[in-house]
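Researcher: Here's a chain I'd like modeled. Treat it as a single chain, no partners, no ligands.
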Amino acid sequence: MSSRHSARKVVLQTLYEWDFSGREGYWQKILTKNFEEFAPDLDEYEFAEDLIRGVIDNLKEVNSIIISAAPQWPLEKTTLVDRNVLRIGLYELIYGDEEEVPPKVAINEAIELAKEFGGESSGKFVNGVLGTVYKEMKKEEENK
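Model: Modeled as a single isolated chain. Structure tokens:
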């Protein structure tokens, strides 16, 4: 398992805790605690911090993308795991550096997180939402 994948796991755990607590508290403290507990030897803290900061800084936009890409699943009814996996995947897909994390890698990583931490159909749900967004992005690029 790659160290970046492990860092994404810690980011997911941090976002889950932050979201569960009503987005109260300092995500930096939660991230530090989670790194110390779940990945003490992992040398990807900066990557994880940049990822979670990006998700939180773009939360309103990312949430609206989820809402439009999955209208049959209201955001507040989506499980905490699925919602935060989608946030990570969408942030990397839309705002991330394609050279660092190609779109298909961002999608695959999110699917793997969903399968590992989510419910029985989480992987398919995340794949469907991210696939829809990716196809729309490709269409927009082609129309430019």
